[in-house]
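Look over what follows to help learners.
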Amino acid sequence: MEPGRSVVRSKRASRIAACTALVLSAGMLLAAPASADDAAPAPSGATAQHAPAPGGKPTLSLPKRAAKKKSGASSAAGKQSPSSVVPAKPRGDLDGDGRGDMLYRGLDGITYAVTATSESHPYVINSDDQYETPKDIITPGDLDGDGMAEVLTLSASGTLSLHQSGGGDGTGYVTWSGNGWQKYNKVSAPGDLDGDGRGDLLARTPSGDVYVYISTGKVDSAPFEAGVKVGYGWNVYDQIVGANDVDGDGIGDVVARTPAGDVYLYTGTGDAAKPFKARANVGYGWDIYNQLISFDDLDGDGLGDIVARKPGGALYTYLSDGDGAFRPRAEGGTGWNAAALFAGAGGNPAWGKQELEARTTGGSLYWYQSRNNQNFFPRQLDSSDTGWNQVSLSLASSLDNDGWGDLLQVYNGTLWVGAEEIGSGWQVYNSLTGPGDLSGDGKGDVLARDTQGDLYLYKGNGLGTKFAAKVKVGYGYNTYNKIVGAGDLSGDGIADVVARATDGKLYLYKGTGDAAKPLSARSEIGTGYDIYKQFAAPGDLDGDGKADLVGVDGKGDVYRYSSTGTGTIAKRVKIGYGWDIYNGLY
């Protein structure tokens, strides 16, 4: 079998087609797969499934909208009277009805809009490349005064694009784009920060510096003023949520959470140069959630509310009490692990790989897609060929713009990325790892280790078609029998690498985002990992945006290690069995 002919670029079309069972119609929310979390893979030779089995539909239960005016909180001591403020407008009003809508991307890669009546339908975000998957989606609100919210998309390579709203079913084409936004690990829309009635942007760097971008009111050129640094030390938060107006003064506010689960509210001042008051602690124990999300005003009182999602997909609503705090939570629905990305979510967006490839001892290849709830869908046959034992394989975090992992194949010394022939001479390497962007340009890269233990960086071109000349970035890596990586494990939004030593110790190499020195000094994060026959990095399995790890022991039992977001990993959890039929996991 010649590599690159079966598992190729058709991955995009085939995997999207394989998930079309998840598509929903108006009035119905996204159909989720049936539970098969602990099911063993089908024996070799069994009929492969061609799509995740549809199961129960996610539900959305929002509070009844109050038939009353805004809370009296705005007239409390120290606050502006209602007549002296610009009312906060919903940032996600996609259809111009004056009420916020919810925008999310499903596991099938399709973007959906959920209206205030809980009806859902596909929402088209136009792009010149039909296969492009934005790394993040942001709704800053109505920037040009036409009554409908604009939509911003952020590409993995750092291009922020403004799509002028074209109605409830989709956006018009891009009217403005700006580059260089990959320097931030989070871009959010807090609402109006300067009192002019237009939504602004807040952006954080991996080191924790915070910048504000004030809206200009334009949508076709320079929609935001140059960024201004307004804070530092925000790297202590793993979630930053633009909450719109929480306290009733018409100015945008921000909710931030630490990895330990403490929640802080930054209320707006209306002064763009100093946009936030001192933080106030408004909750604790919120580490049980994998995402905090802002859907604007849920109950009709004019105040911004928060929605929180558990790893299993359950939603909870936290309504603002108007005094800078939130009321006790209420159940808001189930099955929302079906949302791979929410516009307005607080976590750093995960992008590039949420899947594994597994090779059987007979040479067949299967893929396991993340269910986004700490487990995998049942396996799917990725190639009916049985000659994959002749090929050296690795599944890299996406090297192009579609967000799916790319299969690296070395056959007779020639490297293929999918169907793309890269070049010869790659037989000198005994390990290839594609953890994501290591150089800081937003494009996926590859690390290659030679037989001497030297480590080389190959910068990608963002298309998966070629690499820059190799750069030596380390030595002594022959002490490791496994080098893996797929996204951010440490919580700073930069791709990291994990290496297992021959004595079973596990080490984390945090990414720096600097091509000259892409990995920081190692730190030990565990021992005893030599019990695993297979060890791999599937990307984000639990929907929090951070990279997780998977090990398969000699009996074929499968264990998940979730990232804590602090440079460590949580206690293992068994998620399957019967994987001893595989001789490779990537």
